[in-house]
Write a structure and sequence with these properties.
Blueprint lengths: L7 E9 L3 E4 H4 L7 H8 L3 E4 L6 H16 L8 E5 L10 H9 L5 E5 L5 H14 L5 E9 L9 H4 L4 E10 L6 E9 L7 E2 L11 H5 L6 E2 L1 H22 L7 E6 L4 H10 L11 H4 L4 H13 L8 E8 L3 E8 L1
Parallel strand pairs: 4-5, 4-6, 11-12
Antiparallel strand pairs: 1-7, 2-3, 6-7, 8-13, 9-10, 12-13
Helix pairs in contact: 3-4, 8-9
This protein binds acetyl coenzyme *A.
Acetyl coenzyme *A (ACO) binds next to α2, α6 and α8.
Protein backbone atom coordinates (compact mmCIF):
# COMPACT_ATOMS: atom_id res chain seq x y z
CA UNK A 1 0.00 0.00 0.00
CA UNK A 2 1.19 3.52 -0.81
CA UNK A 3 2.08 5.27 2.47
CA UNK A 4 -0.26 8.13 1.59
CA UNK A 5 -3.12 5.62 1.45
CA UNK A 6 -2.64 4.56 5.08
CA UNK A 7 -5.89 5.76 6.66
CA UNK A 8 -5.72 7.85 9.81
CA UNK A 9 -8.45 8.07 12.45
CA UNK A 10 -9.50 10.44 15.20
CA UNK A 11 -9.28 8.28 18.32
CA UNK A 12 -10.55 10.77 20.90
CA UNK A 13 -11.63 14.38 21.38
CA UNK A 14 -11.72 16.81 24.29
CA UNK A 15 -12.47 20.44 25.03
CA UNK A 16 -12.25 22.98 27.80
CA UNK A 17 -13.85 26.36 28.42
CA UNK A 18 -12.69 28.62 31.24
CA UNK A 19 -15.16 29.00 34.10
CA UNK A 20 -15.98 32.70 33.72
CA UNK A 21 -18.84 33.42 31.31
CA UNK A 22 -19.43 36.92 29.88
CA UNK A 23 -22.92 37.55 28.50
CA UNK A 24 -23.93 40.17 25.94
CA UNK A 25 -25.76 42.06 28.67
CA UNK A 26 -22.61 42.20 30.81
CA UNK A 27 -20.58 43.35 27.78
CA UNK A 28 -23.10 46.12 27.25
CA UNK A 29 -21.96 47.61 30.56
CA UNK A 30 -18.35 47.77 29.25
CA UNK A 31 -18.82 49.07 25.68
CA UNK A 32 -21.61 50.80 23.74
CA UNK A 33 -23.39 47.70 22.43
CA UNK A 34 -26.51 45.64 23.12
CA UNK A 35 -27.65 42.04 23.28
CA UNK A 36 -30.00 42.84 20.38
CA UNK A 37 -27.16 44.11 18.10
CA UNK A 38 -24.76 41.25 18.88
CA UNK A 39 -27.42 38.53 18.61
CA UNK A 40 -28.95 39.78 15.37
CA UNK A 41 -25.58 40.41 13.63
CA UNK A 42 -23.69 37.33 14.88
CA UNK A 43 -25.84 34.84 16.83
CA UNK A 44 -23.45 35.15 19.80
CA UNK A 45 -25.04 35.39 23.28
CA UNK A 46 -22.14 34.53 25.55
CA UNK A 47 -18.39 33.83 25.62
CA UNK A 48 -15.92 32.47 28.20
CA UNK A 49 -12.94 34.43 29.50
CA UNK A 50 -9.82 32.87 31.01
CA UNK A 51 -8.91 33.84 34.56
CA UNK A 52 -5.89 35.93 35.45
CA UNK A 53 -2.94 33.54 35.37
CA UNK A 54 -4.80 31.01 33.22
CA UNK A 55 -2.81 30.85 29.97
CA UNK A 56 -3.44 29.30 26.56
CA UNK A 57 -1.28 26.30 27.55
CA UNK A 58 -3.48 25.65 30.57
CA UNK A 59 -6.65 25.63 28.44
CA UNK A 60 -4.87 23.37 25.93
CA UNK A 61 -3.71 20.95 28.63
CA UNK A 62 -7.23 20.52 30.05
CA UNK A 63 -8.66 19.77 26.58
CA UNK A 64 -5.77 17.42 25.76
CA UNK A 65 -6.24 15.33 28.91
CA UNK A 66 -9.88 14.71 27.99
CA UNK A 67 -8.97 13.72 24.42
CA UNK A 68 -6.25 11.33 25.65
CA UNK A 69 -8.62 9.76 28.16
CA UNK A 70 -11.26 9.20 25.51
CA UNK A 71 -8.70 7.78 23.08
CA UNK A 72 -7.30 5.41 25.72
CA UNK A 73 -3.80 6.70 24.96
CA UNK A 74 -1.28 7.80 27.60
CA UNK A 75 0.77 10.97 27.14
CA UNK A 76 4.03 9.01 26.92
CA UNK A 77 2.73 7.25 23.78
CA UNK A 78 2.51 10.55 21.90
CA UNK A 79 5.06 11.23 19.16
CA UNK A 80 3.71 14.64 18.19
CA UNK A 81 1.94 17.57 19.84
CA UNK A 82 0.80 20.50 17.71
CA UNK A 83 -0.87 23.54 19.26
CA UNK A 84 -2.67 25.75 16.76
CA UNK A 85 -2.92 29.23 18.24
CA UNK A 86 -2.62 32.93 17.49
CA UNK A 87 -2.51 33.72 21.21
CA UNK A 88 0.51 31.76 22.47
CA UNK A 89 1.68 31.94 26.10
CA UNK A 90 4.96 33.41 24.84
CA UNK A 91 6.37 34.27 21.40
CA UNK A 92 8.95 31.60 22.14
CA UNK A 93 9.06 28.84 23.22
CA UNK A 94 6.01 27.38 21.58
CA UNK A 95 2.88 26.84 23.67
CA UNK A 96 3.11 23.16 22.67
CA UNK A 97 6.33 22.88 24.73
CA UNK A 98 4.50 23.94 27.89
CA UNK A 99 1.72 21.46 27.06
CA UNK A 100 4.25 18.65 26.50
CA UNK A 101 5.66 19.31 29.97
CA UNK A 102 2.23 19.63 31.60
CA UNK A 103 1.10 16.31 30.13
CA UNK A 104 4.37 14.43 30.70
CA UNK A 105 4.90 13.49 27.05
CA UNK A 106 8.71 13.35 26.71
CA UNK A 107 8.69 11.36 23.44
CA UNK A 108 6.57 13.94 21.63
CA UNK A 109 8.06 16.56 19.34
CA UNK A 110 6.05 19.69 20.12
CA UNK A 111 5.51 22.87 18.13
CA UNK A 112 2.88 25.53 17.38
CA UNK A 113 1.35 26.56 14.11
CA UNK A 114 -0.18 29.95 13.35
CA UNK A 115 -3.04 29.69 10.86
CA UNK A 116 -5.68 31.57 12.87
CA UNK A 117 -9.11 29.90 12.84
CA UNK A 118 -7.88 27.31 10.32
CA UNK A 119 -5.08 26.09 12.58
CA UNK A 120 -6.80 22.99 13.98
CA UNK A 121 -7.44 21.55 10.51
CA UNK A 122 -3.97 22.57 9.28
CA UNK A 123 -2.67 20.59 12.31
CA UNK A 124 -4.86 17.64 11.37
CA UNK A 125 -3.32 17.58 7.91
CA UNK A 126 0.27 17.69 9.28
CA UNK A 127 -0.48 14.99 11.87
CA UNK A 128 -2.21 12.80 9.29
CA UNK A 129 0.84 12.98 7.01
CA UNK A 130 3.31 12.28 9.84
CA UNK A 131 1.32 9.22 10.89
CA UNK A 132 1.03 8.05 7.28
CA UNK A 133 4.80 8.24 6.77
CA UNK A 134 5.42 6.29 9.97
CA UNK A 135 7.19 9.22 11.64
CA UNK A 136 4.85 8.97 14.65
CA UNK A 137 2.24 6.52 15.91
CA UNK A 138 0.03 8.91 17.86
CA UNK A 139 -0.43 12.66 17.50
CA UNK A 140 -2.21 15.17 19.70
CA UNK A 141 -3.57 18.24 17.94
CA UNK A 142 -4.99 21.16 19.90
CA UNK A 143 -6.68 24.43 18.97
CA UNK A 144 -6.29 26.77 21.95
CA UNK A 145 -6.81 30.50 22.34
CA UNK A 146 -6.82 33.16 25.00
CA UNK A 147 -8.11 35.89 22.70
CA UNK A 148 -9.20 38.00 25.67
CA UNK A 149 -5.52 38.99 26.06
CA UNK A 150 -5.38 40.31 22.46
CA UNK A 151 -8.66 42.24 22.32
CA UNK A 152 -9.07 45.97 22.65
CA UNK A 153 -11.93 45.95 25.15
CA UNK A 154 -12.83 49.50 24.11
CA UNK A 155 -13.40 48.48 20.46
CA UNK A 156 -17.01 47.29 20.18
CA UNK A 157 -16.51 46.14 16.57
CA UNK A 158 -14.23 43.31 17.72
CA UNK A 159 -14.51 42.71 21.47
CA UNK A 160 -18.07 41.36 21.26
CA UNK A 161 -17.06 38.61 18.82
CA UNK A 162 -14.37 36.59 20.54
CA UNK A 163 -13.87 34.21 23.47
CA UNK A 164 -11.33 31.86 25.07
CA UNK A 165 -11.22 28.04 24.99
CA UNK A 166 -9.49 24.92 23.71
CA UNK A 167 -10.33 21.74 21.83
CA UNK A 168 -8.15 18.70 21.13
CA UNK A 169 -8.04 15.43 19.24
CA UNK A 170 -5.80 12.36 19.33
CA UNK A 171 -4.97 10.83 15.95
CA UNK A 172 -3.55 7.42 15.10
CA UNK A 173 -3.56 4.84 12.32
CA UNK A 174 -7.04 3.67 11.43
CA UNK A 175 -7.73 0.13 12.51
CA UNK A 176 -10.99 -1.79 12.34
CA UNK A 177 -13.70 0.13 14.15
CA UNK A 178 -11.96 3.52 14.37
CA UNK A 179 -13.16 5.40 11.27
CA UNK A 180 -10.82 7.41 9.06
CA UNK A 181 -10.10 10.80 7.54
CA UNK A 182 -11.43 10.52 3.96
CA UNK A 183 -10.17 13.77 2.41
CA UNK A 184 -8.64 17.11 3.38
CA UNK A 185 -8.19 20.50 1.75
CA UNK A 186 -6.06 23.40 2.97
CA UNK A 187 -5.39 26.78 1.34
CA UNK A 188 -3.99 30.27 1.88
CA UNK A 189 -4.42 33.68 0.21
CA UNK A 190 -1.58 35.92 1.42
CA UNK A 191 -2.96 38.90 -0.53
CA UNK A 192 -5.53 39.38 2.25
CA UNK A 193 -3.25 39.72 5.28
CA UNK A 194 -4.57 43.24 5.89
CA UNK A 195 -8.18 42.17 6.47
CA UNK A 196 -7.66 40.50 9.83
CA UNK A 197 -4.54 40.70 11.96
CA UNK A 198 -2.80 41.46 15.23
CA UNK A 199 -0.25 43.92 13.85
CA UNK A 200 1.82 44.62 16.97
CA UNK A 201 4.13 42.59 19.19
CA UNK A 202 6.14 41.10 16.30
CA UNK A 203 9.16 42.41 14.41
CA UNK A 204 7.04 44.74 12.23
CA UNK A 205 5.70 46.72 15.20
CA UNK A 206 7.67 45.74 18.31
CA UNK A 207 6.36 46.32 21.79
CA UNK A 208 7.11 50.03 22.26
CA UNK A 209 5.11 52.35 24.49
CA UNK A 210 3.75 54.15 21.42
CA UNK A 211 2.61 50.91 19.76
CA UNK A 212 0.97 49.69 22.95
CA UNK A 213 -0.88 53.01 23.31
CA UNK A 214 -2.21 52.56 19.77
CA UNK A 215 -3.53 49.08 20.70
CA UNK A 216 -1.40 47.52 17.94
CA UNK A 217 -1.18 44.23 19.84
CA UNK A 218 -4.98 43.88 19.61
CA UNK A 219 -6.97 42.09 16.98
CA UNK A 220 -8.06 44.29 14.09
CA UNK A 221 -10.58 43.29 11.43
CA UNK A 222 -12.41 44.58 8.35
CA UNK A 223 -15.56 42.63 9.17
CA UNK A 224 -17.57 43.03 5.97
CA UNK A 225 -14.67 41.99 3.69
CA UNK A 226 -13.80 39.04 5.94
CA UNK A 227 -17.44 37.96 5.80
CA UNK A 228 -17.45 37.75 1.97
CA UNK A 229 -14.17 35.81 1.77
CA UNK A 230 -15.33 33.45 4.54
CA UNK A 231 -18.49 32.41 2.72
CA UNK A 232 -16.80 31.81 -0.65
CA UNK A 233 -13.71 30.03 0.66
CA UNK A 234 -15.57 27.77 3.08
CA UNK A 235 -18.18 26.80 0.49
CA UNK A 236 -15.50 25.94 -2.10
CA UNK A 237 -13.32 24.06 0.40
CA UNK A 238 -16.20 21.98 1.78
CA UNK A 239 -17.31 21.13 -1.75
CA UNK A 240 -13.74 20.09 -2.57
CA UNK A 241 -13.47 17.54 0.27
CA UNK A 242 -16.99 16.23 -0.32
CA UNK A 243 -16.04 15.55 -3.98
CA UNK A 244 -12.56 14.16 -3.09
CA UNK A 245 -14.20 11.75 -0.65
CA UNK A 246 -16.56 10.59 -3.42
CA UNK A 247 -19.59 11.85 -1.51
CA UNK A 248 -22.70 13.93 -2.24
CA UNK A 249 -23.93 16.65 0.16
CA UNK A 250 -26.87 14.35 0.98
CA UNK A 251 -24.39 11.74 2.35
CA UNK A 252 -23.18 14.13 5.07
CA UNK A 253 -24.60 13.51 8.55
CA UNK A 254 -23.19 16.68 10.09
CA UNK A 255 -21.25 19.76 8.99
CA UNK A 256 -19.11 21.33 11.75
CA UNK A 257 -18.09 24.81 10.56
CA UNK A 258 -15.87 27.47 12.11
CA UNK A 259 -17.94 29.28 14.73
CA UNK A 260 -17.58 32.98 13.83
CA UNK A 261 -20.99 34.22 12.81
CA UNK A 262 -24.38 32.51 12.43
CA UNK A 263 -25.06 34.46 9.23
CA UNK A 264 -21.85 33.06 7.68
CA UNK A 265 -22.82 29.54 8.77
CA UNK A 266 -26.35 29.90 7.32
CA UNK A 267 -24.96 31.25 4.04
CA UNK A 268 -22.60 28.28 3.72
CA UNK A 269 -25.31 25.71 4.51
CA UNK A 270 -27.48 27.36 1.86
CA UNK A 271 -24.73 27.28 -0.79
CA UNK A 272 -23.82 23.66 0.03
CA UNK A 273 -27.53 22.75 -0.18
CA UNK A 274 -27.26 21.19 3.27
CA UNK A 275 -30.17 21.56 5.69
CA UNK A 276 -29.39 23.93 8.62
CA UNK A 277 -30.39 21.13 10.98
CA UNK A 278 -27.33 19.19 9.81
CA UNK A 279 -24.99 22.04 10.76
CA UNK A 280 -23.55 22.12 14.28
CA UNK A 281 -23.63 25.50 16.05
CA UNK A 282 -22.36 26.42 19.52
CA UNK A 283 -21.15 29.99 18.88
CA UNK A 284 -24.13 31.31 20.84
CA UNK A 285 -22.40 30.05 24.01
CA UNK A 286 -18.71 30.56 23.21
CA UNK A 287 -18.35 33.27 20.52
CA UNK A 288 -15.45 32.93 18.09
CA UNK A 289 -12.56 31.07 19.75
CA UNK A 290 -10.45 31.06 16.54
CA UNK A 291 -8.36 27.85 16.26
CA UNK A 292 -10.24 26.30 19.17
CA UNK A 293 -13.71 26.78 17.71
CA UNK A 294 -14.01 23.83 15.34
CA UNK A 295 -12.16 21.58 17.81
CA UNK A 296 -14.56 22.44 20.63
CA UNK A 297 -17.52 21.98 18.28
CA UNK A 298 -16.22 18.58 17.13
CA UNK A 299 -15.84 17.42 20.73
CA UNK A 300 -19.28 18.66 21.76
CA UNK A 301 -21.00 17.15 18.72
CA UNK A 302 -19.18 13.86 19.38
CA UNK A 303 -20.08 13.74 23.08
CA UNK A 304 -23.68 14.72 22.28
CA UNK A 305 -23.78 11.76 19.85
CA UNK A 306 -24.74 13.93 16.88
CA UNK A 307 -23.01 11.31 14.71
CA UNK A 308 -22.04 7.67 15.18
CA UNK A 309 -19.62 5.10 13.83
CA UNK A 310 -19.75 5.03 10.04
CA UNK A 311 -21.36 8.47 9.65
CA UNK A 312 -19.70 10.97 7.30
CA UNK A 313 -19.01 14.42 8.73
CA UNK A 314 -17.39 17.53 7.25
CA UNK A 315 -15.34 20.11 9.17
CA UNK A 316 -14.77 23.46 7.43
CA UNK A 317 -12.91 26.54 8.68
CA UNK A 318 -11.68 29.96 7.66
CA UNK A 319 -9.41 32.54 9.26
CA UNK A 320 -6.81 35.28 9.11
CA UNK A 321 -4.19 34.94 6.42
CA UNK A 322 -6.55 34.37 4.75
CA UNK A 323 -6.51 30.66 5.45
CA UNK A 324 -9.11 27.95 4.97
CA UNK A 325 -9.33 24.19 5.40
CA UNK A 326 -11.77 21.28 5.35
CA UNK A 327 -11.82 17.62 6.29
CA UNK A 328 -14.30 14.90 5.34
CA UNK A 329 -14.26 12.15 7.98
CA UNK A 330 -15.90 8.75 8.26
CA UNK A 331 -16.41 8.41 11.99
N1 LIG B 1 -22.65 47.10 18.95
C1 LIG B 1 -23.41 48.04 18.38
N2 LIG B 1 -23.14 48.58 17.19
C2 LIG B 1 -22.03 48.15 16.56
C3 LIG B 1 -21.18 47.18 17.11
C4 LIG B 1 -21.52 46.65 18.36
N3 LIG B 1 -20.80 45.69 18.97
N4 LIG B 1 -20.17 46.97 16.24
C5 LIG B 1 -20.36 47.77 15.18
N5 LIG B 1 -21.49 48.50 15.38
C6 LIG B 1 -22.08 49.49 14.49
C7 LIG B 1 -21.08 50.11 13.57
O1 LIG B 1 -20.44 51.19 14.19
C8 LIG B 1 -21.95 50.54 12.41
O2 LIG B 1 -22.60 51.74 12.78
P1 LIG B 1 -22.82 52.91 11.69
O3 LIG B 1 -23.72 52.29 10.66
O4 LIG B 1 -23.45 54.00 12.48
O5 LIG B 1 -21.46 53.23 11.16
C9 LIG B 1 -23.03 49.46 12.37
O6 LIG B 1 -23.02 48.81 13.66
C10 LIG B 1 -22.81 48.42 11.29
O7 LIG B 1 -21.48 47.94 11.40
P2 LIG B 1 -20.93 46.89 10.37
O8 LIG B 1 -19.48 46.64 10.64
O9 LIG B 1 -21.32 47.32 8.99
O10 LIG B 1 -21.76 45.59 10.77
P3 LIG B 1 -21.88 44.21 10.03
O11 LIG B 1 -23.30 43.94 9.75
O12 LIG B 1 -20.89 44.06 8.90
O13 LIG B 1 -21.45 43.18 11.17
C11 LIG B 1 -19.61 41.83 11.84
C12 LIG B 1 -20.14 43.24 11.70
C13 LIG B 1 -20.49 41.07 12.83
C14 LIG B 1 -18.19 41.91 12.40
C15 LIG B 1 -19.61 41.08 10.49
O14 LIG B 1 -19.06 41.89 9.50
C16 LIG B 1 -18.86 39.77 10.54
O15 LIG B 1 -19.23 38.84 11.25
N6 LIG B 1 -17.83 39.64 9.72
C17 LIG B 1 -17.04 38.39 9.67
C18 LIG B 1 -16.15 38.33 10.83
C19 LIG B 1 -15.49 37.00 10.97
O16 LIG B 1 -15.98 35.97 10.56
N7 LIG B 1 -14.33 37.03 11.59
C20 LIG B 1 -13.70 35.86 11.97
C21 LIG B 1 -12.67 35.34 11.06
S1 LIG B 1 -11.92 34.27 12.05
C22 LIG B 1 -10.34 34.63 12.57
O17 LIG B 1 -9.40 34.33 11.88
C23 LIG B 1 -10.13 35.27 13.93
Amino acid sequence: MNLADQPVAILGTGSYLPAKALSNDELSTIVDTSDEWITSRTGIKNRHIAAEGEHTSHLATHAAKKALEQAGITADQLGLIIVATITPDTLTPATACYVQNNLGAPQAVAFDISAACSGFLYSMKIAENMIQTGAVDYALIIGAEKLSSFINWKDRTTCVLFGDGAGAAVLGASIEGTGRILATDIGTDGKQTHLLNIPGGGSAHPTTEENVNQHLASLSMQGKEVFKHAVTRMKNSANTVIARAGLEPSDIKLVIPHQANLRIIDAIADRLTIDNKKVFVNLDRYGNTSAAAVAIALDEAHRQEKFERGDKIVLVVFGAGMTWASAAIEW
